[in-house]
Amino acid sequence: MGSLGAILLSGLFLLFPNRIQNTLIPGLISYATGTLLGTAFLGMIPHALEHLPVPQLGLTLLLGILLFFTLEKFVVWRHCHSHACEVHEASGPLILIGDAFHNFIDGILIAGAFLADYHLGIVTAISVVFHEVPQEVGDFAILLKNKYSKKKAFGLNIVSGLSSVIGAVLAYFLMDQMQFLTPYVMGIAAASFIYIALADLIPDLHHHFSVKESLIQIVLLTAGIFTIYFMGHIS
To answer: How many domains does the chain have?
Structure first.
């Protein structure tokens, strides 16, 4: 319930009326950009570096970025039926794929903590919930921006969250055999978050030119980064 609990809590955002959601979404996109970058650079990459040398992790990140660039191209090709078609909102599918990797890692971490100590497992699961909530709220905003319905956005996030159950079950039965894969999966998940933030979300933020909107974006993006920083230190 660690990752799924975060999705359920963040899903409360969907209960707001459409008018309020439409007002909040632009700010949440900025905030989501910060949480994605914060999760990648302050959480996943440092943890992966504990088990991988820098050159190997660097190669994993580059291959992950190439993978998600290719996936985004596939999404564009799949939906584009005109030579004049150039721009598509592909960040929705990509955020779900990236979250699936991330949740898979969460499942492994929670299962590993429970195997080490029952109380440590409970604390780890609670930490995952509070760590994931701000990011999941941002994910909902991204999906709604991509014209997903509330019901579809919530359902797809639940499906993505179920990958944590798969990771936990595999870790429980195959912890010794699959432990070496964890930093590589973490690196790919970090690459997905970096790619989504830099290739899909930040360019969209540049569509707003006023000084007031720009300052709000900077503040909220910074707040997203610091939220992940503080959550990491609390847990």
So the answer is: 1
